[in-house]
Amino acid sequence: MVSTPTNVRNYFKLDLVLARSCIILRQVFKSRYYLFTGGQVWSDSAKCGGSYFVNIIGKNKKFNLTTVQKTLVCNGDTNEWDLTTLMTLLMNTDRPKTLDTAQIQQLDNEDQLWFQL
């Protein structure tokens, strides 16, 4: 029986973690979009992506997206977004002022977990 080197095993573990992270972060993005837009549901469409790009990203100087990331966001299909795109969107989107205390606490806890990554 051949032993797999540690660095090869670690690579596959990291690949698995990254793949699973993107799935979870897509769900978090859609959940926050719903919360921040007063109940609008994100559909993986160019309509949602274009609107988000103009109204959220375009009005916020904190975003620093590459040309490819801008195109992907405008296309609106979250399944095409990679880890860096998702994290950039989640970490730089401003919260609305209308959230209640429980919602703010939950968002603070989620943010704290991301910053630990």
Q: How would you describe the overall organization of this protein?
A:
This protein has about 120 residues and is mostly helical. It has one domain (about 5-115). The protein has five helices and no strands. The protein has helices at about 5-35, 45-55, 65-75, 85-90, 100-115. Helix 1 (about 5-35) packs parallel to helix 4 (about 85-90) and helix 2 (about 45-55) crosses helix 3 (about 65-75). It is globular, with a radius of gyration of 17 Å. The N and C termini lie far apart (about 35 Å). The mean pLDDT is about 90.
How many whole angstroms does the radius of gyration measure? 17 Å
Question: Largest sheet, if any?
Answer: none
Poorly predicted spans: none
Q: Please give the count of helices.
A: 5
For the record, give the distance between the C-alpha atoms at the N and C termini, rounded to a whole number.
36 Å
Instruction: Tell me the structural class.
Output: mainly alpha
Query: What is the oligomeric state here?
Result: single chain
Taken together, the total number of domains comes to 1
**Overall pLDDT:** 89
Counted beta strands: 0
Helices and strands, in N-to-C order?
A: HHHHH
What share of the residues lie within helices?
A: 55-70%
Rough outline: globular
- Strand percentage lies at under 5%
